[in-house]
Amino acid sequence: MATLAAAARPRYAVPVRWLHWLGFILVALAYLFIELKGYVPKGTPLREALKQYHFWAGLGVLLLLLPRVWARARHGTPPITPTPAGWMELLGRLTHLALYLFLLVQPLLGLVVLQLDGGSVNFPGGLALPSFLAAPNHELAHDFEEIHETLGEIFYWVIGLHIAAALWHHFVSRDDTLKRML
Fold first, then answer.
1. CB distance 102 to 158 below 8 Å
2. Which domains, from first to last, does the chain contain?
3. ∠85-88-90 over CA atoms, to 5°?
4. Mind listing the pLDDT tens digit of every residue in the chain (182 residues)?
5. Is there a contact between 51 and 35 (Cβ–Cβ < 8 Å)?
6. What is the DSSP letter of 173?
7. How many CA atoms lie within 13 A of 72 on its CB side?
8. Which end of the chain is more exposed for a tag (fewer CB within 10 A), N or C?
């Protein structure tokens, strides 16, 4: 009987769940690659590879955003059972809005920094992402890089809040918030 009750619980649609977890993996990889880069000596092939992997993961995050928003809009959000307090729902919506803005702004800032610095996202086989900026501007690249890095540090906390809230809902509130995404 418990199995039937669990199966009847509303969950996010399969595409929404898959895109969520794929996005999680790409964001985690982007953070991992850029953090590892800091431990590798400048000018080494490994450091350059880690930077490119960071760029690929960030580009993947950006490319997944539109399908993710579309899937979420198409399939909707299942209700939380039992219904949380209004302030908790509001905080959840604000956190999700911040996360979605981050998924848009952070990769775009990364591309701007890279292209202002005269670089590009290179793919195997000699393919490269075309530049959409007229000319490099290293000074401006540095300014945008500071913003990109600061947002990245802020979002460690926002992502942590998102994870902590999911765990709190599961273990303390004992509602189905986390189960909806599993």
1. yes
2. 2-181 (1.20.950)
3. 110
4. 445 455 566 899 999 999 999 999 999 999 999 999 999 999 999 999 999 999 999 999 999 999 999 999 999 989 888 888 899 899 889 988 999 999 999 999 999 999 999 988 888 888 888 888 878 999 999 999 999 999 999 999 989 989 999 999 899 988 888 898 88
5. no
6. I
7. 15
8. N
